[in-house]
Amino acid sequence: MIKLLVFTLVGIGAQIVDGTLGMAFGVTATTLLVLSGTGAAHASAAVHFAEVATTLASGISHWRFGNVDWKMVLRLGVPGGVGAFLGATVLSRISTEAAAPVTAGILLAIGVFLIVRFSSRPPLELAASEKAAHSAKFLTPLGLFGGFIDASGGGGWGPVTTSTLLTTGRAAPRRVIGTVSASEFIVSASASVGFLLGLGSEFFDNLLIIAGLALGGVLAAPLAAWLVSRVAPAVLGTGVGGVLVLTNARTLFKSFDIEGAPRTIAYVVIVVVAVALTGYAWQKSRTARAAAAAADPETGADETPEAPAGNAEPVRTESPSPDNAGITESAEAPVR
């Protein structure tokens, strides 16, 4: 019962992160499971099997809100499934002791990626205009790489694929997140099959972990939906990246017997850098919100006096308005 509670809490924490960022359920849950003493392969297997249910629900929800591009789902998800199956097979064949530093190294790299990604340029600041669709030549290798990293590292599909697609600016963020979430079902199912074949009967030792993660994810979903409007993605993403770097650095130090002063200095540097960048991301988000709040009153001021005249858009788009003098004066007054 206590173990089920622990795994449920892990699922809650991972779902809160994933629900507010649109990514990082796998890396967060795997890191917490490994820290609790679960083997790397078993942790990744449990996470992916639990994600089969959560990603299916997420994909259906995004589809109902019109956030899914099904053509992109197939072009991205099918190669992602192949990569996930290969990654699961590779991880399953590595001994527990050998897999721990490999998984920790991948998760640490993902943590660094999240820190840099969210502190420098949050996805929400990227262009939201729809452009030419991505080609299969671009999506296939991206899916293969993202799927392999996701299965072998216990997570990474979202950080790799979502951030890459958002950077290109070819689709609105909601479309990218919805499509990646829907395609992750294929990745999770393929990884689960790979782990099932690789681990054999040992796979069923993870049923308690799977139940806890699934239960925690369901319970935390409403809270995550509430937090997404309260916590800036840049702050949470940078903070999560810092936690991943710190926790997985601990695993690597332990694996390579790094102790004493070098270990302490490394911890201090990681904490200082992570806190500083999280603070920077918070300040950046605060400035962006202040600018948006300042812009709203001006918009309201422009639209309020112009609405009765019925010429709101023409007056705002044409600086030297050729309209009647009365309309020109009423539009210029609030601006001055």
Description:
This protein is mainly α. The protein is 80% helix and 0% strand. It contains 13 helices and no strands. The chain has helices spanning 2-21, 25-35, 40-64, 70-92, 96-120, 136-153, 157-168, 173-199, 207-227, 233-255, 261-306, 312-317, 325-335. The longest helix is centred in the C-terminal third of the chain and has 46 residues, at 261-306. The radius of gyration is 23 Å and the shape is globular. Residues 124-129 and 299-336 have low confidence and may be disordered.
Tags for this model:
mainly alpha, 80% helix
Order of helices and strands: HHHHHHHHHHHHH
Helix content: over 70%
Low-pLDDT runs of 5+ residues are 124-129, 299-336
Biggest pleated-sheet summary: none
Concise summary:
The protein has 336 residues and is an all-alpha fold.
In terms of topology, how is this protein built?
Layout lengths: L1 H20 L3 H11 L4 H25 L5 H23 L3 H25 L15 H18 L3 H12 L4 H27 L7 H21 L5 H23 L5 H46 L5 H6 L7 H11 L1
